[in-house]
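Forum > Structural Biology > Help requests

Title: Can anyone predict the 3D structure of Formamidopyrimidine-DNA glycosylase?

Hi all, first post here. I have the sequence for Formamidopyrimidine-DNA glycosylase but no way to get a structure on my laptop. I'd be grateful if someone could post the structure tokens.
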Amino acid sequence: MIELPESITYASMLNQYILGKTVAAVCPPSAPHKFCWFHGDVNAYDSLLKGKSVERADAYGIFVEITFEGGLYLNFNDGVNVRLLEEGEKPPKKYQLLIAFDDGSALVFTVAMYGGIACHQGEFDNEYYLKNRAGITPLDPGFTEEYFLKLAESVKPNTSAKAFLATQQRFLGLGNGTLQDILFYAGIHPKRKLVTLSREELLGLLASVKKILGEMAEKGGRDTEKNLLGQTGGYATVMSRNTQTSGCPRCGGQIVKESYMGGSVYYCPDCQPLVK
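Reply #1:
Sure, ran it for you. Structure tokens for Formamidopyrimidine-DNA glycosylase below:
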């Protein structure tokens, strides 16, 4: 899933590899996916984008947006996987969108679980997009200690650490994937209530949010995700499906995996005790 480190990585690589390329054709889904949502008629994307050149790519939280000449945009989010194909490289048989460029290269978009792809002319009024576009992420200068503490004060005292970090778009680009390592390095159990955290622990959580997200972005995303070239990210996760059987890197204890709030959480019960 695309979270802030991956959106930053995608935007950086798109700017590196496709800037200035001109669209030759846009191919609609070769295999429709009921959990891939498009803005408007995907069959109209070809007439909108054909002949337009790429001006830039930007990251907005969980969204990546490509800007084309003429005020046209294409963004994607969540579980959309995007790969750059070189000239002559065959696309997968099943894809949700393919953008071919006049130099023979192409971008191919596939969805495993769910995701959205939107081509628009500046009128995309999706609430999540608008919030991610207008808001600040934990890596922005405006995400200060004061801002963070106000967020903590704005939620109910019995809100869990996971709910605080990964719901209601409070921390743009931070989701169930990135929060695992953030909570581990902060020494906080995913189910721990905010009311049990001291000011010092809250500030430690903020420091972990900024440090871990920053490292993940600097290293090209997490090793559980792939980038524009199909390579896994350079950040080695410590609490993920990749490490569940490896043991806690701090104490050597068993890493626990359990379902919580619609997704899996990974934690060390010794290093992240559930304080009540």
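The domain at 145-267 is CATH 1.10.8.50 (Helicase, Ruva Protein; domain 3). The chain has a mean pLDDT of 97.
Shout if anything looks off.
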